[in-house]
Amino acid sequence: MRHRSLLILTATVTVGALSLSACGSRDGKSGGDSGEKTTVVIGVDAPLTGDLSALGQGIKNSSDLAVKTANKNDEVKGVTFKLESLDDQAQAGTGQQNATKLVGNDQVVGVVGPLNSHVGQSMQKVFGNAHLVQVSPANTAPELSQGPNWQKGQKKRLFDTYFRTSTTDAVQGPYAAQYLYNKRKLKKAYIIDDKKTYGAGLAGTFTDEFKKLGGKVVGTDHINPDDRDFSAVGTKVAKSKADFVYYGGEYPAGAPLSAQITKAGSKALVVGGDALYSEEYIKLGKKNVEGDLATSVGAPLETLDTAKTFMKDYKAAGYKLPYEAYGGYSYDSTWAIIQAVKAVVEKNDGKLPDTIDDTRKQITEAMQDVRFEGVTGDVSFDKYGDTTNKQLSVYEVKDGKHKPVKTGTFQEG
Fold first, then answer.
1. Helix axes 117-129, 92-104, angle to 10 degrees
2. Based on the domain organization, do 76 and 182 belong to the same domain?
């Protein structure tokens, strides 16, 4: 394998003087007490344009805040962090291209993202082959960490470079099923998904648990997530007399779907996962989505003492868009990479290894043992690279806002 050297050394100089950058291989003078700093890059991949850009921008901004905080506090002696953000437009092919670009950048030591599970799936092998660690704040499809046969009890980690700070649909779907059946006493479901990795998988885990509890599925459908006319589906839902619709998909299609189900004369609520937990869902659906429910990973940030500083600093930073559903998880994903870099620096006498290949390998190894109190609570990873934090919350649209109605962990029946 070709060994590549980390490139930029930024010399620390007196206040008011210009910083000088030199290209070349690190020779042991960087880091430690030499006064020189190594600049390394953390990549971010998310949909920064298009229908899901609100979530993507929240991910990017939160990662940016983590990097700025680390640099301001000199979190890793001898290392300056820089962010490179790439737009995947929620497309798997674009995400794979971005992964190749990030791997080819000899300064990139870790990547945060992506938002979408199907995009994450397309990037895994690229990062795995390059030993480049990836930490997603939002992927929830279980197969990304536990393999395609996880539901059969045949769990197998395919890439030791893949980690995530959000919990998975293996618990998110069943958690929603228990809430609807046991707490809300809703017994008849109409199941719809968008056929994508995330949506179909989430609808599947929900359906399995709902049936297990004694619930009845009165109809099923698949939709094209790029469509906006769902009147035919709305008519079928109305005729089914379903208590609610469970939608495995994202808010750009979810909001008009809900509105058109209402217009068809159905009183069924629309319920979905974390991809419906967005201000954009309410903006798109307006009064038609009042009463709808969404689950999301973790506890509401407003209820966590660990999130207070993040929320204050995010506001002070003046970002134009909110941090949205995954802001805290994006900050924690970025901070996890920073902590892994810190562990490698401490292991190597105050500097990173001389080659980018060794640096990436050691950071991936260090990530497995990363543990800290983050924005979203305790952050650590199990043997599959999944978060050990299994908390989830249910939100209801009330008076034009997502209001939390339940927080807890999924309990096996």
1. 30
2. no
Rounded Cα distance, 270 and 293, in Å: 6
Residue 339 phi, psi dihedral angles, 5° rounding: -70, -35
Segments in 143-278 forming alpha helices (H): 143-146, 169-178, 197-213, 231-240, 251-263
The residue segments making up the domain with residue 72 are 8-167+303-381
Which distant-in-sequence residues (6+ apart) come within 8 Å of 320 by Cβ? none
CA distance between the termini of the chain: 49
> Percent of the chain at pLDDT above 70?
91
Query: Is a pLDDT exceeding 70 seen at residue 31?
Result: no
The pLDDT score that the predictor gives to residue 34 is 53
Select from 247, 242, 248 the least CA-distant residue to 215.
Answer: 242
Residues 6+ positions from 106 with CB-CB distance below 8 Å = 4, 5, 6, 7, 356
pLDDT attached to residue 143: 96
Rounded to an integer, what is the distance from CA 112 to the centroid of its chain? 8
Which tokens go with 151? 């539901």
Domain count, the chain: 2
Residue 259 has phi, psi (to 5 degrees) of -60, -40
Where are the strands (E) in 244-337, listed by range? 244-248, 269-272, 293-297
Identify the CATH number of the domain in which residue 403 sits.
3.40.50.2300
Shared-domain flag, residues 253 and 396: yes
* Helix 308-317, helix 53-72: angle, nearest 10: 100
- 8 Å CB contact between 158 and 147: yes
**CA 112, CA 134: separation in Å to the nearest integer?**
6
Residue 210's contacts (CB-CB under 8 Å, 6 or more residues apart) are 177, 180, 181, 189, 217, 246
